[in-house]
Amino acid sequence: AVVSTQSTGELRDAMAGVGVKFSDEEVTTFFNKYDTDGNGEIDFHEFVALSMALNAEALSGSEQAIAALFNSMDADGNRSLSHEEIRKGIADFTGKGADDIEVTNLIKQLDVDGDGEVSYKEFSDNILTKIAVAIKHHN
Q: 126 CB contacts (<8 Å, ≥6 apart)?
């Protein structure tokens, strides 16, 4: 998906749309870090910078954080997340429950090969996973 501009509300809604709920304060703190011109939107260039920063972080601590999050959700250890594992993982990660529709939407976003589950590669490659981990670790 190409992002032209993103406001804090749009970013929060995008995260909520895949079952990850953050407070306005958490999203705003993260958002303001990348809204370098302070106009209240993350434009394409700022989004590219954000993506590059998240990829650089993925090479350091965030990669371990993503792996730890995946492993904590993967209850049966099969390196693939089922609907139930994702539902429980979201609740544990955010402290808020996710309903079946939110989990189904998240699986649709992450499940590249369409097998109904989310592999580690699908999970770790997704920009929303990287943003979620970054928001969680920067606050």
A: 109, 110
DSSP codes of every residue in 76-94:
T-SSEE-HHHHHHHHHHHH
Does residue 76 register a pLDDT over 90? Answer: yes
DSSP notation for 24-79? HHHHHHHHHHH-TT-SSSB-HHHHHHHHHHHHHHHTTHHHHHHHHHHHHH-TT-SS
pTM for the structure as a whole = 0.56
Question: pLDDT tens digits for 27-70?
Answer: 788 788 878 888 888 777 777 777 777 666 655 566 777 788 88
Whole-angstrom distance, CA of residue 93 vs CA of residue 100: 16
Determine the Cα–Cα distance for residues 49 and 93; give it in Å rounded to an integer: 26
74 and 39 Cβ atoms separated by less than 8 Å: no
- 7, 40 contact by CB (below 8 A): yes
CA distance 96 to 134: 18
The highest-confidence range among 10-14, 105-109, 125-129, by mean pLDDT, is 105-109
**128 near 14, Cβ under 8 Å?**
yes
Q: Which residue has the tokens 């989310």?
A: 118
